[in-house]
Amino acid sequence: MQKPVPALFMRGGTSRGPFFLESDLPADTAARDRVLLAVMGSPDRRQIDGLGGAHPLTSKVGIVRTGTTPGVDLEFLFAQLQPDRDTVDTTANCGNMLAAVVPFALERGVIQAQGDQTTVRVLTRNTGMLCDITVQTPLTPAGRQVSYEGEARIDGVPNTSAPITINFLDTAGSVCSGLLPTGRVLDRVRVEPPAGASFQPFDIDVTCIDNGMPLVLFRARDLGCTGQEKPAELNADTDLKARIEALRLQTGELMGLGDVSGRNYPKMTLVSAPQAGGAINTRCFIPHVCHEAIGVLAAVTVGTACVLEGSVSNALAQLPDGARKAVSIEHPSGEFTVELELDPHDAQKVVRAALLRTARLIMRGEVMVPESAWQAAGVDGEHVR
Question: Would you say domain 2-163+359-376 falls under CATH 3.10.310.10?
Answer without folding.
Answer: yes
